[in-house]
Amino acid sequence: MGLRPDKPMVGRYWDYLETVVSRLMGSQLDAEALAKGQLARHLKAWVEPTLELIDNAKALELRQWVKVQRAVNSIHMALKQLFADLARQIQREGNGEQPAEEVTSASEALFFRAERVLYLPEAEAPTYTYQPRLKDVPQEPSPPLHPNAFDDTPLMLPLGTMDAKSHLMERECLRQGFNVLRTGKGVFTADKGDQRFYFKLSRSPLVSVDAIALCTHKEATREFLAPLGFPVPRGRMFPSGDHDNAMRYANLIGYPVVVKPATGVRGIGVVPNIRSDEELQSAFHVLESSKLGHDDFIVEKHIFGEDYRIMVIGGKVRAATLRAPASVTGDGKHTIAELILIKNRYRQNIPHLKSRPIVYTESTQYQLDKLGYTLHSVPPLGKRINLSGSCNLSQGGDSVNVHHEMHPSIIKVAEDAVKAVPGLDYCGIDFLIEDHRKPVGETDIGICELNAHAAIGTACYPMFGEPVNVPRQAIEAILHNQGMPLTPLDDSQVSVKMRVRGRVTGVGFRKWVSRHAQKGGLTGYVKNRDKRTVEAVLQGSLVAIASLATACIRGPSEALPTSVRVMHVKEPLHDGFTLIR
Amino acid sequence: MASPSYDKGERPMDVRIDSFRALLDSLPSIAKEGLLIHAQRLPASARTMLLPRQLAYYYDRHADGESVGKPAGFVCGVSGRNLLPAVNFCQDIRAWRARLERHGIKVVKAASFSGRSQRDHLRYAKKIGYPVVLKPVIRNTLYEEFITDISNENELEFLFRKSRELKKNKASDLTASPYAMTRLSEDHVDEHGRRFLPLSVRYLLEKQLAGRHLRLIMAEGQLAAAFHKPLQDKAWQPADNLHESYRALGEKVAKVMQGMAFLRIDLVVEDPASEAKEGNHAVISLSEHLKCYKLYDEHPAVTQRLLELVAGCSPDISLETPLQIEAVLAGISRGERLERELRRTAQALGMELAIEELDQVTGRVRFHASGPAWAGSALTWAYANGLGIEEIPTSVDVKVIRSGRGG
Question: Of A124, A416, A501, B92, which residue is 20 to 30 A from B169 by alpha carbon distance?
């Protein structure tokens, strides 16, 4: 399928389905075969909606593209199941007792064959090459980085779409021998002896009230840091409608400038790189027609460069993550659509990005139109195609740890900025940097924000570059700060007792726990303790235990748990996982 | 004299205010504690940075008068020495109640229900017996909203009859205290001007105990002050003959509430002078907000000592001592109006004012002002927090040029 760029994506998708299924069933696939239920039930369920999708496929519409992406993933899963069924059938036909390993290997072999037919066979792993432009001149590129793949990904499946921030902190607390009481998706208390820490998202339990007050107000951060000589973009806030003063101010600080709402969340109403009075005037129109148009707004100096999140823990920079906008790099063979699918496949290996694929949206279309491409174009080898204007990871952006090549002067600025704020324990600083390999004077640089609950998963599980266990260092810094010894447990053999309270009985909670425990390779048991409590003993790897414990605050769809208590216990090793009725 | 209470649209600064006490009376309660700390710290600091939402930073003075080191931070008069997670914990009544109970500290009998389940409230009230108190489970930082003296079923039912969905209004900058989970605020008023009970809030229904109110103020784990009063009274009396067991109780609570450098514990007790025993006392509320402004009028000496503890310094000048300051306001867009307001406010406070720079493009306004120390503090505090003025700057940077200590 990869070699027929002239055919629309949906058509080719149908082709590969047809190929696979025909090979499996030894006949051409037609609607009749489908109707007769000659396909496995799961596969049929997934194929039917696609059938309709293909019938209506006149032009490649946005929503269809999203559906295709979803269908590809789902078909993948369904086929896996189908092959397992087939393998079992083979076993039965083979007159009796075949060892279990052979069944698995048969299913794996089938699956492997199908995957080669199905799924973009000869694609190389996407790489990331850092090559900034200074005043429109491309700089020397850095060596290319290869994508990471983490073993933790399948173990973190119970979390689903839950944010991993709080889970990562909980995991490290458990590792240090703390017992944990979780009362909300982002809130838990870790205790050991008399010592108790209260965690909310990834925020430090040792942060002071004033530090958070400062960090959560961007103007306050700017006003605080600017007089101390930190590189914050020059700018100020204006009341809604004060365009005359804003224009004069823009002329005073000099173009290019950025206009954004004062209380905005990333992206809404922001107009970057305004170069003249006329552009500024139209930026005001954009701002006013946005959702936050009636709010105060900010005019500040535009800083060229990309978005960085620098984690400072214990006064030292531990990770510097570049958040690049969603992009694909051409290989001269595949279309952009296929490159997106390839990249999404590699994103599946990153827990933090697993639920954040590159999705074809209007903004992607806009970016492609700008470059004169369509989804079916085959970009030349090495050509990077930006698919989004925003650096947001949720919109398909890449996370790249660039700590190894960041200039020491930038690192010093970051460390000093955190030191300057009293009561701020650890923090993620958002920077805009033109070229992170150059010293502060030679490259444009600006602090955008101090982020007290930074997304630590980004640094922990980057797509490219070396992963840094930020939560581990954060917890170690907290313990060090409190004069407590470090007592890490063996990651691979942890034993805990878990009590989940709330509406957890009669809703399939035990079954749910047991399914995820088995998937995560855990041993132990789960049982109902009383009408409102489920109790489980979990033994096995820390990652699997921690992710299941975090996910328990949500549980299966019918459940309404109110708290999850996880305590370390010393129990003899259980053999397998039992659901006690 | 000042108007007795502050209201939206009213401008307390229009009238002549001739004392710190009068000024304090004219401010909304949400800004009072912050001003008390500000008046304490401003004259003693080399440089003061006032930021939005009542955030204030004070830089210590070096021997040569220059600022030095890291500043001390305060939000709404709450010291930055309090850790945020601990404060959040304190704001969640269910959370701290559970923790105190686990440590064997007696808390008042209560249970929490969703605002939508009127039946649960009525059933529980019947079980514990009237009178009861109704309060939101997540406490707003400064307004401790609660409804007391609900003496029978009809009254409780009536409250819920008035209830309605909470309007999702953006909180004003002043009330949007950044560390507060602002669920209830003073302006839950319907279109007819009646206050209503928001439905989307979880409420705690609490047994209203008979006895005396005892207030313990803890600083760094030690008892700093104790007051008591009959339940219906407003004025607090110092608890001079406080029984040792209550001191121990306060210290235990402070220890349990790790991370709270300053903590106010409210109890209902039979008699503060007799020993705390089973059934004669219960903790009813905990807060990071010490409410020194409630004690300021009647117990100036004790309050002063408390303020010094929280502020972390003792000013060696009185509030009446002359003070000269240089202030820079940033983010000003309507220069003329600001100038008028500034002159009017300075005049109301009896200060001399000299505006040296007023640029509405850069948004900077620089002025010198001299007058009594309290007026200097008040002027800067009022501007930083938009109290009774139209224009709210994004920051106020204050330097003390000369204070009464002969500098």
Answer: B92
